[in-house]
């Protein structure tokens, strides 16, 4: 299901942020208001450029609200964000059950399946999504699609152990019919992107027709030896919040 909420007044003064940034902020602020409940003590914090607005809103709930809370990061970026915001850092080792995890997404379909891993964090993101009683997505309007792969053409992010990357690439090309699957390279092609877990990332595009069955693609990729995790999150999210260009919010649930 999907619903459109009434336009909200942006918390950011006109002209200070782009429309896209404002829509990320509106999505994040609304999701925090609805899902980070006063009684929650363990909160998962995802990765990407939308998540800082999640943390911003949580900080705005005040020191008292956050005094007894612990925040679990999905990677280096969110760890830095938690620490620099003065929030208490925890680890999923200590807190394998999380009240709510909020995270961004590269694209979300009508069934709340999503592509994640644009920032190479999807292994830890999936762990925190699974550990959470409630998993919530926040994104700008560009990520709200009927079928995965509509706007996000980079492909499904796949974390692989470095030893196996060439074999997995070959499997993707020859067995799973993703001829454009490539190893993700760092800026200026200085070398492969290395995840927080010391692994490489492959991006494997599939046409939209095949992405209508994301669970099947996910399962096929996961079967390849050397694959650590696939950036397809199927039926995991409770709801997704999208900020729109006109200042309204679309919620899918
Ligand atoms: C990182 C992710 C991000 O959540 C995803 O790429 C969305 O990022 P952004 O909020 O910058 O659009 O999955 O691995």
UniProtKB/TrEMBL annotation:
What GO MF annotations does this protein's record show? ribose-5-phosphate isomerase activity
Spell out the protein name for this chain: Ribose-5-phosphate isomerase
Taxonomic lineage per UniProt?
A: Eukaryota, Fungi, Dikarya, Basidiomycota, Agaricomycotina
Keyword list (alphabetical) reads: Isomerase
Q: Which GO terms describe its cellular component?
A: cytoplasm
Q: What is its EC number?
A: 5.3.1.6
Shown portion of the whole protein?
Answer: 49 to 301 of 314
Family that this chain belongs to: Belongs to the ribose 5-phosphate isomerase family.
Q: In which pathway does it act?
A: Carbohydrate degradation; pentose phosphate pathway; D-ribose 5-phosphate from D-ribulose 5-phosphate (non-oxidative stage): step 1/1
Query: Looking at its record, which EC class is this enzyme?
Result: isomerase
**Single biological process term from Gene Ontology:** pentose-phosphate shunt, non-oxidative branch
Decide whether keyword Isomerase is in the record. Answer: yes
Q: Which reaction does it catalyse?
A: aldehydo-D-ribose 5-phosphate = D-ribulose 5-phosphate
